[in-house]
Structure formats: C-alpha cells, structure tokens
Design goal:
- The protein has strands at 17-28, 35-36, 39-40, 51-52, 59-60, 63-75, 80-97, 102-108, 111-118.
- By secondary structure, the protein is an all-beta fold.
- Strands 1, 6, 7, 8 and 9 form a 5-stranded antiparallel beta sheet that branches.
- β7 (80-97) and β8 (102-108) form a beta hairpin.
- 3% of the residues are buried.
C-alpha cells in the first residue's frame, strides 16, 4: 500500500474518545548527589567512573521500577490528541547513597499526566 493509507483497525477521526492503558518496567539508574541536613554525599568526580556498577560511580544501577497508566485520549484533529492519564508506579532501590550510609528503600509514585501528542 502507498504511504499515508490506513492499514488496520478502525479509522481515527476528530472527536474520537478512547480509553488507553500502558504498562512498563525498567532499571533504576539514579544519580545520588545530594545534601541532606547539611551533609553532602560525594560520589566522585563527573569525569571519572561515570557509569554504572561501582559504589562510587556517578550513575549507579540500583534497582528496578515498574508502573501502569490508564486514562482517556481525545482526538481533536485527525492527527492531534489530548491525553489525561493516572499513572502509578513502584520502585525498589538498593545500596543508594542518600546520606553517608547506603540504604535500601521502596516507594510508590502516583501521578496525573496531561499530554498533547501528534500521530503521523
């Protein structure tokens, strides 16, 4: 088929309202340079040990993150849309240097996301 022709599924039109969902997972790659109560965490100079597995690397692989997102998408022009979603995730970080000691932590991260996009 020539480019620009609809190939599969229902044709998308302006005014369409869609329910959407996504799921994903990945590695947690934090950069733990911070100051808490006047105590600065030093992870080394930026030019040395940039990534990823030593305890003094600038960026450190320290765990995992996973999340889901559900919401609605309104197509206000054939190729433009506005999307409102609720996103929720979970992360587990191990051996992160938040203070002078390494810590392991878990946390959730709920958020609302409003985005505008373009389909081509």
């Amino acid at each position: 088929m020539p480019c620009g022709h609809h190939r599969a599924g229902p044709e998308q039109q302006a005014g369409d309202l869609q329910l959407i969902s996504r799921a994903g997972a990945g590695i947690l790659l934090p950069h733990a340079e911070n100051t808490i109560l006047g105590r600065t965490v030093e992870v080394g100079p930026k030019n040395d040990n940039v990534c990823c597995f030593a305890s003094n690397d600038w960026w450190q692989v320290n765990g995992w993150t996973a999340g889901v997102e559900v919401g609605v998408r309104y197509r206000f022009y054939k190729t433009l849309y506005l999307e409102l979603t609720q996103k929720s995730g979970l992360r587990r970080a191990a051996r992160c240097r938040y203070t002078v000691v390494q810590q392991t932590s878990r946390s959730g991260c709920p958020s609302k996301v409003l985005s505008m996009g373009f389909h081509f």
